[in-house]
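Structure ticket #2291
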Amino acid sequence: MQYDILIKNATIYDGTNSRSYRSNIVIKDGKILKIGELVDEHLCSSVIDADKRFVCPGFIDIDNVSDHYLTLFSNPKCDNLLRQGITTIIIGQEGSSLAPLIKNRLSSFETWTSIDDFNTSWRSFKAFLAFLNSKRFGVNVGSLIGWNTIRSGLIGESFKNLSDYELKQLLILVKQSIKDGALGVSFGLGYSSGRAISKREILAVANEIKKFKTLFSFYLRDDSFGFLNAVQEILEIVVENEINTLISNFKVQNEENFMNFDKALKLIEVSNTKDKKLIHFDIDPYDYVCQPLINLMPDWLAIGGKDVVKSNLLDKDIVKKLIKELKQNKGFYKKLILVDIDKKYRIFKGKTFEKIASNMGVSIEEAIVKILTLTQKKVIVLNQSLSISNIDKGVKNAYGIIASNGMSTDINNFSEYFCDQRSIGTFPKYLSQYMKVLPFETLVYKITGLVKEKLNLKDKGYIKIGMDADIVILNSQTLADQSTMQNPVIAPKGIEMVIVNGKVVLNKGDVIDGENGKIIIRS
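Resolution: structure written out below.
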């Protein structure tokens, strides 16, 4: 056969934010070979009639945490991601990445998952890419470098400024990793391992690798009462130094802070000029947050790492001080749902802290302290603390990129693994919910072409001749996220076919091949 796949009668949204057009697509050897020409069907191994269907580039999830939970390796097929049209994921966000490593330390991952049984056979980013290339994944995978990971790998969880020598050593590591193919650098300023990261460090990294035109991603230092100051901190750095920036997992929590979201959007819009649109943010369409419980504690409790936390929680005077502070925001902690914890404490999974406290016969604040004392490892909570109105504004904003902040997960073992709706239905929910609000070409652009441009991806994000054949065929009439908070693993509807690198991997909602992804390196 001369051609691999012919997609005919397609309504094409090409990822460039242009209006759709009706045409045909010819695929050969993993690439888009022709657009427009209707070739002889007998010369094609497969013919797909896409009449009355929308055909889009594969969706690119710019903020995926399959690495943080290590599920990229426990569920490499990424079938839950393919079912929502995701063909490429970007990992290494929020300051934590699987490479490069110093002394094989993955301590920055302990807030999300257990690393006790996970062995790394690499140190450098180049060796990590070689490891990834030895595996088979359902989606394409690219990675940033996590500054928190290499920083804590060098100095541990110490709350201190880096010396000039220490900073120089890390800059050498970053520069080499970028040369080896990393897509950028991420900073997790809002985690205990990132509290000591200073403007000096960020600028040093920027000056070292800015010429490579990579992405700088920032998880804000505060997404609650200090939200606006946290946004201003980033804008002051990146505008002055013209840094290509993504604010990851952009949100503001607590009702009394909701008004600051409009102010933050205005600051971003003013900071971006007509010629230089340096700053974007990613956001998902759900009104809740999933995060480590320790992140919701006062800064002073966690600074210094898990050993300091353990010591603090054994000190009666410190515990008394902690409980007093928690009581000042009682309504906030009351709503928290514990969604992931070490296996031996699974009895608490799915319960609110109000219910846990009632079962224990203690106050909500005392229940939180008890849970933290039981395990210094992963305690992940879900909190419906966001404004739906703000989410709408963020999604519709010109600088908003839609991302899942979800992960690859085995939906057949839901009881064993943590999973939430974002990992199952983010992109179908976004498209179906906003198709009457924004032009469909704009909706597609925010999850394809805009991400391509932000990351400078060479072969992904557009339907154009010569691009990789990552393609989604969807039914706009049936498109829907069916998951619920109580049952998040119900697959979405409407994503009918997914092609990854020229091969059909999902057909009629069923994954038929979970091994055709590629590893993406910096162009």
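Closing remark: The two ends are 32 Å apart (CA to CA).
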